[in-house]
Design a protein that fits this description.
The complex is a heterodimer.
Chain A lengths: L1 E5 L3 H13 L3 E5 L2 H10 L4 E4 L8 H10 L6 E5 L4 H9 L4 E4 L4 H15 L6 E4 L2 E4 L4 E4 L2 E2 L4 H12 L4 E2 L1 H8 L8 H15 L9 E4 L3 E4 L5
Parallel strand pairs in A: 1-2, 1-3, 3-4, 4-5
Antiparallel strand pairs in A: 6-7, 7-8, 8-9, 10-12, 11-12
Helix pairs in contact in A: 2-3
Chain B lengths: L3 H53 L8 H11 L10 E6 L5 E4 L19 E6 L5 E11 L15 E10 L1 H36 L1 H11 L20 H48 L8 H27 L6 E5 H9 L3 H6 L3 E6 L4 E5 H18 L5 E7 L2 E7 L31 H11 L2 E8 L2 E8 L1
Parallel strand pairs in B: 7-9
Antiparallel strand pairs in B: 1-2, 1-5, 3-4, 4-5, 6-8, 9-10, 10-12, 11-12
Helix pairs in contact in B: 1-2, 1-3, 5-6, 6-10, 7-9, 9-10
The chains are: A alpha/beta, B alpha+beta.
Chain lengths: ~230, ~475
């Protein structure tokens, strides 16, 4: 999952980015409103966290511009403005969520997770495909009752593939959603990550292969014999 | 007495009581007077008859005293009814009682000493306790000698006649009149009391309404205004003054409310930063950021600055600050205030120009003056464009600090001194509390100066002047 954070307080932004990265998200961040708008226009983020008061362009304007252009990226406002009128204005301008500073880290993470789910029309934090179950909240995956030992990035990759189960996922899409700007992925980074993931989810010899390669297109995750 | 109602009631009731008593007494005494007058008139009439009788027959054959008495008796027939209410008594020139009416019974009329011919009236009591009105007069009775010769031996001379009428009837009438007046007076008093209290209650009702309306005014309801439409003309100025007061209070509270909201807002970001730092450190204890203590310290200092600025502002606003006047070397103070900005001045390549007479000083509180100058100078350095010029002019009685501010607008000018106001709504630059100019202006007024901002040709100037 790739997230954009636009927050003008440096320390707060850095902390949020750190927390999100450690939770397995790919994160891009900026402190400037206009730059934030350009970023969200250029990349298909799974969710964006916007401060309202920003230099050069405020959060509400960014959101209005996005929605006017038909961009449906789930957006959460993160602001010190807590009056009911402010919240209403924020939500009416097209925001999916509104969190008032100061906030609890767990709440921020839970809300971000819910926002990301929303983009894939998922209602609960658990996703299941055949005998593979993934819990987005607990960050755990089990196959046939066996807990899988995944790194944060592997988990993110599996989560993304499962959320888009049955659809063809291109390498570019994986790059965009799993890796942030800090990592400049070589073309084979995705392939090797998928390869490693395949090995990890094959817990036994009779495990059904779930990640299939579509030559020249990408990958598709579904429960069918190879 | 503090109650208008009680005061009015006292005045009205006391005044009306005096008026009613006066009227009652007036009626009583005038009736009494006219009743006595009528008795006196009757007595005077009888007296003339008596005198006429006594004189007129002086030349008749029967000139004896008995004869005269007989005639008098005939003239004054009603004086002889034994049960009658009229009496007479005659003393001859020797002072002996010569005649008396039968109605007198055992009683005698008092003998009054009269010198002239004028009758004398008096009210008296008979021996048996009957109250009478008495008229005594002298009359010349016919004697043997020629008329006017005076006192002859045979009763010729003046005899004293006393006529009297019993007044118990009049006294009775007067007593019942007095009773009537008393009852009427009591009724009038009760009526007056009722009227006065009712009138006062009705008349003072608008005051009660006003006080009831006032009771329900509270901080949240400061938007409400008194409805003066139905108020009496006398209360209109009070209503107007109260509404004006409410307006001022509302504005003041609104300002304070906004300040509180801004303050909460201002403190939220640093608190959110602290909280995030702490939570991240707790959640991933093995990956603690080595810069965590430095960040924490920086946030603490920022909060400390904010609190310090707030406290100073509050003290200045409440006038609690005691001034410590001293002679301050202005250009030295300017240099001192610019010291912390040196790096920034160099980084932005600012052209600082200080114009001052050598050794120019000012009599002021050095601490407050430092607050003013350091805020103005830091602001100028902070917001000046790179490679622009900052002009500082020190004159006796005024200080001007000017820098080019292309983004400043005339509309923003009045807000410059508002607490927490910033041209840019964002809080990126967290080293500034947003209280600097508000603080500078308060400090200026505390030392008797006025701090104003003006914008002309894209140059923003702050001027500190004696007010």
């Amino acid at each position: 999952m790739r997230i954009l954070v636009v927050e003008d307080s440096n320390r707060l932004r850095e902390s949020i980015v750190l927390a999100l990265r450690r939770s397995g998200y790919a994160v891009d961040a900026t402190g400037d409103g206009r730059e934030g708008l350009e970023m969200v226009e250029d990349h298909p983020y799974d969710a964006a966290i916007l401060d309202i008061m920003l230099p050069s362009l405020d959060g509400v304007s960014i959101l209005k511009t996005l929605r006017a252009a038909g961009n449906r990226t789930p957006v959460m406002f993160l602001t010190a403005k807590d009056a009911v009128a402010d919240r209403v204005t924020g939500l009416r301008s097209g925001a999916d969520d509104y969190l008032v500073k100061p906030f609890a880290l767990e709440e921020l993470l839970a809300r971000v997770e819910a926002l990301c789910r929303r983009g894939y029309q998922k209602a609960a934090s658990e996703t299941t495909l055949a005998d593979l179950t993934l819990d987005s909240t607990a960050k755990t995956a089990t196959r046939a009752g066996v807990a899988l030992d995944l790194t944060a990035r592997e988990f993110a990759l599996l989560e993304y593939l499962m959320l888009r189960a049955g659809q063809i996922v291109t390498r570019t899409q994986i790059e965009e959603h799993i890796y942030d700007d800090l990592v400049s992925p070589m073309s084979n980074v995705v392939d090797s990550a998928v390869c490693a993931l395949r090995k990890k989810i094959a817990v036994s010899d009779d495990s059904l292969p779930l990640i299939h390669t579509r030559r020249g297109q990408g990958y598709v995750m579904e429960a069918r014999p190879a | 007495m503090r109650s208008i109602k009680q005061r009015l009631m006292l005045w009205l009731l006391a005044g009306l009581a005096v008026l009613w008593c006066g009227t009652g007494a007036g009626i009583y005494f005038s009736v009494r007077h006219s009743l006595y007058q009528s008795i006196d008139t009757a007595l005077a009439l009888d007296a003339r008859l008596a005198r006429f009788t006594a004189l007129g027959d002086s030349d008749s054959e029967d000139g004896t005293a008995r004869g005269r008495g007989q005639r008098l008796q005939n003239r004054l027939a009603d004086y002889h009814d034994p049960q009658g209410l009229s009496f007479y008594q005659v003393w001859n020139s020797q002072g002996e009682v010569s005649e008396r009416s039968e109605s007198l019974g055992d009683a005698t009329l008092p003998k009054l000493e009269i010198s002239g011919n004028d009758p004398v009236f008096s009210s008296t009591m008979l021996g048996d306790g009957r109250a009478v009105r008495l008229m005594s007069f002298r009359t010349v009775t016919a004697g043997g000698g020629p008329k006017g010769k005076g006192k002859g031996r045979h009763g010729g001379g003046s005899s004293l006649i006393a006529l009297a009428k019993e007044t118990s009837e009049i006294e009775g009438t007067l007593a019942s009149l007095l009773g009537g007046i008393g009852i009427a007076g009591l009724l009038a008093a009760a009526g007056t009391f009722f009227l006065v209290t009712t009138a006062l209650r009705h008349g003072l009702r608008p005051l009660k309404t006003l006080s009831e309306q006032t009771r329900y005014i509270d901080t949240p309801s400061l938007k409400a205004r008194f409805d003066a439409a139905n108020a009496p003309a006398e209360l209109q100025p009070i209503y107007a003054a109260l509404n004006e007061l409410l307006h001022r209070l509302e504005q003041g509270f609104e300002r304070e409310r906004r300040f509180s909201a801004d303050l909460a807002h201002e403190m939220r970001t640093p608190v959110a930063e602290l909280k995030m730092l702490g939570e991240v450190a707790l959640k991933w204890p093995d990956q603690t950021d080595p810069e965590l203590p430095a960040h924490t310290l920086a946030i603490a200092s920022q909060l400390e600055n904010l609190i310090e600025a707030l406290l100073t502002l509050a003290r200045l606003e409440s006038g609690e600050t005691a001034l410590q006047l001293s002679t301050v070397d202005l250009s030295a103070l300017c240099h001192e205030c610019l010291q912390p900005c040196t790096e920034k001045v160099e980084a932005k390549q600012l052209d600082l120009r200080l114009r001052s007479e050598p050794g120019l000083s000012m009599e002021a509180d050095a601490r407050l003056l430092r607050i003013i100058l350091s805020n103005l100078l830091t602001n100028a350095v902070e917001y000046a464009q790179a490679s622009s010029r900052i002009e500082i002019e020190l004159d006796p009685g005024s200080i001007t600090i000017a820098n080019a501010a292309p983004d400043m607008t005339q509309e923003n000018l009045p807000h410059l001194f508002d607490r927490f106001w910033r041209a840019e709504q964002s809080r990126t630059n967290s080293t500034h509390s947003g209280l600097g100019l508000a603080l500078a202006r308060q400090a200026a007024s505390a030392i008797g100066y006025r701090l104003d901002a003006s914008l002309s040709g894209g140059v923003l100037s702050f001027t500190l002047k004696k007010c």
